[in-house]
Amino acid sequence: MNWTFLLSILLLTPTSQASQNENFNMLWVPINHRPPMIKLMRAQFEPFALQITHAPVNPEQHPNPFGVSTFDWNVGHHLPKEGEEPGPAPDINYFQDASWYLGLVLQNKLPDIFLIGGHFANSLGWMSPNEKVFLYAETLSEMPKRHPAAKLVFDHVKLAILGGCHSMTNLQPHGPHGEYLSPAEIFEKYTYGSDQIKSQLIGTGGDEWTLKGYRNRLYDDEHDFTLFANREDCKDPEGPNLCKRAYLNRVFPTRSLWDPEEPFNGPRRWKKLFPNAYLVLGYSTGSPPEEIREEILKLAIKNTEIQLNKTGSSRVNEYSHHIIQTIVSDHTPDPVRREVITEFRIQWTKATAALNGGRASGSITPAYPDLDANGVFSIPVAGRTLTYYPYEKR
């Protein structure tokens, strides 16, 4: 039985209602438990109604729809020791947890906006500031595949804002001219290539946008990771908070460079999770505190409005006063939305560079593949030539 089709029938009424009344829904996953961004988002929809759903994130209670856990990036689950076969990502309980997504469908609360913050580690996932709660990226990616109602929820997202360090980073190597390399091509080069080619695929210790550089960054910046297998401090795989120190080559294994799911490719992961989103924002570098993230988004919105009022088409000027609403509204003409998003992507990159120590960040546009055909950046970024190249086969 096609459960996704049957559930989609239930969406006919809420979709019609949303288009008539312009009610908007935002799903907030409060890993960071900090509200500043919430206030900014509410202001973007005044005097329009923005309903905010706070996802449950208590690992000790049900429903636990995102499968948050007190487990660290431990030896168990899908991160085994070197030489062992990885297992499936942790899943949620079908009746106690997945039913929460069905509740959103039945209550007409499908999200137009998805918001999450906290710390982020590429390919691993989010953790709370006190590092007591963990949300596995693999669990999140598998959710729409395993649970039909969850797929309807993520398919409905039009704007996703992903806080956390390197949430928009791609550690997979590109070709010599910046071209996209598929996992199969990376595997062939690594398996049959020279030592020099292998070294190029893994990257350099000084470039945090390569696997080797990212490992080194975490080792330099955090006490939670080690570059040496014999210094990994892990306990029984059934206990919580297993690893006081995790071995970087285990949690960021070289084999993931050619994994068909491309776990190191952040932009590609989010495009698959939010296939219909007009815009997905993230951080291509280290991320600032939540309060600065709010200022970055506020600055990007402000400068987008200013720039569109100067150079935008006459039609765009009618929509330039509520940028976020314009992006997600069903009433926005498609050419206007594209023009607004094109400018907003530029201003997002400029704002992140201005307020995050010169470190620019990018974005993707799953619903408009032509807008991000050259990668996560749409303007030149100093010292980051390769970031212009595609994050997927185009």
Structure description:
- The chain is of the alpha/beta class.
- Among the domains are: 3-157, no CATH class; 183-258, no CATH class.
- It is built from 15 helices and twelve strands.
- The strands form three sheets. The protein has a six-stranded mixed beta sheet, sandwiched between helices.
- Strand 5 (125-127) and strand 6 (134-136) form a beta hairpin.
- Helix 5 packs across helix 6 (148-155).
- 47% of the residues are buried.
- Residues 9-20 have low confidence and may be disordered.
Which structural traits does this protein have?
single chain, 394 residues, alpha/beta, 6-stranded mixed β-sheet, 3-stranded antiparallel β-sheet, 15 helices, 12 strands, 11% strand
The global form is globular
Distance between the termini: 34 Å
Q: Stretches where pLDDT falls below 50 for ≥5 residues?
A: 9-20
Structural class: alpha/beta
Lateral arrangement of strands in the main beta sheet: 2-1-3-7-11-12
Q: Cα-atom Rg, whole angstroms?
A: 21 Å
Measured by DSSP, the beta-strand proportion falls in 5-15%
Largest sheet: 6 strands, mixed
**What's the mean pLDDT score?**
85
Tell me the total number of β-strands: 12
Topology:
Elements lengths: L2 H8 L1 H10 L2 E6 L6 H9 L5 E5 L44 H8 L6 E4 L2 E3 L3 E3 L6 E3 H10 L1 H8 L3 E4 L20 H10 L2 H8 L8 H11 L3 E2 L6 E2 L8 E5 H4 L14 H8 L5 E3 L8 H22 L2 H4 L5 H6 L5 H22 L7 E2 L30
Parallel strand pairs: 1-2, 1-3, 3-7, 7-11, 8-10
Antiparallel strand pairs: 4-5, 5-6, 9-10, 11-12
Quick summary:
The chain is of the alpha/beta class and 394 residues long. 38% of the residues lie in helices and 11% in strands. Among the domains are: 3-157, no CATH class; 183-258, no CATH class.
